[in-house]
Write a structure and sequence with these properties.
Length: about 500
């Protein structure tokens, strides 16, 4: 077991901590100044520490400077900062530098040992998580339902058969489509994705099939559509259930004979493309309602692969959370946050109506907004933390198990894996729509009762700040996209960010 490194110029502090940790079977090594610590870290013959406990003020160097240098070389090493100067500036500096925890002197010895043991557990957990992350595939999941998905991708690896992926919004259908492409004979060809629900009906036909010059007003040159762009590879049609009815006929013809015409064209174009479609809708019900062609449904439904909702694979939440925290930190150029077991338990109890995409957004929000390096339950965003007296949304009791039809040859009857019958998953119970309004009312009453005369300005500032920060987290910091989603102008969001001090 790696030792705990203790850095303090006070011999009595070193002695007390050494004895206390040895009683807990935790090996130690002591230093009197930061210079010796850095030399030991640089030495290839030295065994690195599992946790570093350092004083903040020592002759020959500062604990905060040591923290910066250690974090640069060993970003996953938990560092506990001790100081007799229990002031706010030191605490803020320690946390901004990425300290695991802040320990003021004089400290209670049992509490100090408990804190160090927590840091040891965190170090071991991070080591395991880092090892898994290094070997992580393009998709993550240990839950049985996800393992069935992985097995299906393996079975389909040498096939060009059409696949229909079903699952709730945000469950990762495009990731499955990319994995199917990556492990198929067409892996060297392009992967082209199009969301048929996101493109206006008038433009979708041209997007899919391209157009000839002069086909319509504004068509000044010939344009290749997505089918031609995906030549020799895979075309992923997301949200196929929302495709306009008249375009379904054209798509059916391509799937039937492999030919299509550009808009305004007279020469047939051959399509050497594998089609993978996805939808969050019940296509059988859409067929009954007369808004989706039955013959197209059967053309697409050669192999159906159902992706489970995140609430059906709760055991994957810790792994996904750590992965997204690492990913967000890398994108933002900051140190990755760690998350406590209590916060993970709170996330695991949440229903995640937005599935994996919602968890990814929450992790991005936490990377930006969580005040400390270790995320605690109180740091989680409002949608995860229920108002007083309300329980978190839990898994619906009658949620269906995953369905995974698999077949060997196109045209054969799909075979169901023994997971269960294909029936829709019950929607998660949602909190009352007015819950946040009730919270706003309670906060307003509290401010009014305090005698303040700036309640309007105070609540407006807080509301706008939270709204803008949430939108920026959702768009990964892209202001123009955040402004578009909020329905405000680019200049407005820039001005608000400046006025509210959100820079």
């Amino acid at each position: 077991m790696k030792p705990i490194w203790i850095v303090d110029d006070d011999q009595s502090i070193r002695f007390v901590l050494e004895k206390a940790l040895l009683r807990e079977d935790l090996p130690t090594r002591s230093f009197t100044n930061p210079r010796d610590v850095l030399q030991a870290l640089d030495s290839e013959d030295e065994e690195g520490p599992q946790v570093l406990v350092s004083d903040i003020r020592m002759p020959g160097g500062s604990g905060l400077d040591l923290l910066d240098k250690v974090r640069a070389k060993h970003p996953g090493l938990p560092v506990i900062i001790m100081t007799a100067f229990s002031d706010l500036d030191s605490a803020v500096s320690a946390f901004q530098g990425g300290a695991f925890e802040y320990l003021p002197k004089p400290f209670d010895l049992p509490k100090a040992v408990e804190l160090i043991r927590r840091a040891v557990e965190e170090s071991q957990r991070e080591a395991v998580a880092e090892e898994r992350m290094t070997a992580a595939p393009e998709m993550l999941g240990q839950a049985p339902a996800m393992q069935d998905v992985f097995r299906a991708i393996g079975r389909l690896s040498q096939s060009n058969v059409t696949v229909l992926i079903t699952g709730e919004s945000g469950s990762g259908k495009e990731l499955v489509a990319r994995a199917l492409h990556k492990h198929s004979p067409r892996a060297d060809g392009p992967f082209v994705a199009i969301n048929t629900a996101a493109i206006p009906k008038d433009l979708l036909e041209s997007e899919l099939f391209g157009h000839e010059r002069g086909a319509f007003t504004g068509a000044q040159t010939m344009r290749r559509g997505r089918f031609e762009q995906a030549e020799g590879g895979t075309l992923f049609l997301d949200e196929i259930g929302d495709m306009p009815f008249d375009l379904q006929t054209r798509l059916l013809r391509v799937l039937s004979d492999g030919h299509f015409y550009r808009v305004g064209g007279h020469n047939a174009v051959k399509a050497h493309v594998r089609v993978i479609a996805a939808t969050h809708q019940d296509l059988e019900q859409r067929v009954k309602e007369g808004v989706f062609r039955e013959d197209l449904f059967h053309r697409l439904n050669v192999i159906r692969l159902r992706l489970p909702a995140l609430r059906e694979r709760r055991e994957d939440v810790p792994m996904l959370t750590r992965h997204f925290l690492q990913q967000s930190a890398k994108q933002l150029g900051v140190e990755p946050k760690r998350i406590s077991d209590a916060a993970l338990a709170r996330l695991g109890a949440f229903a995640f109506p937005g599935n994996v995409r919602q968890l990814e957004n929450i992790c991005h929000w936490l990377t930006v907004m969580a005040p400390a390096q270790v995320i605690e339950p109180k740091d989680l965003p409002p949608e995860v933390t229920p108002p007083p007296g309300e329980a978190l949304a839990t898994r619906p009791g009658a949620a269906a198990e995953a369905t995974l039809p698999v077949e060997a040859e196109p045209g054969a009857r799909p075979l169901e894996t023994p997971l269960s019958e294909d029936r829709p998953v019950a929607a998660p119970s949602a909190p009352p729509a007015a819950a946040w309004e009730q919270g706003l009312e309670a906060e307003a009453l509290a401010l009014l009762a305090s005698g303040r005369h700036d309640v309007w300005d105070e609540l407006t500032r807080r509301f706008e700040s939270r709204l803008i920060l949430t939108a920026l987290a959702n768009t990964r910091g892209r202001r123009i996209e955040a402004a578009q989603k909020l329905g405000i102008g680019r200049n407005t969001i820039t001005r608000k960010i400046q006025e509210l001090g959100l820079e």
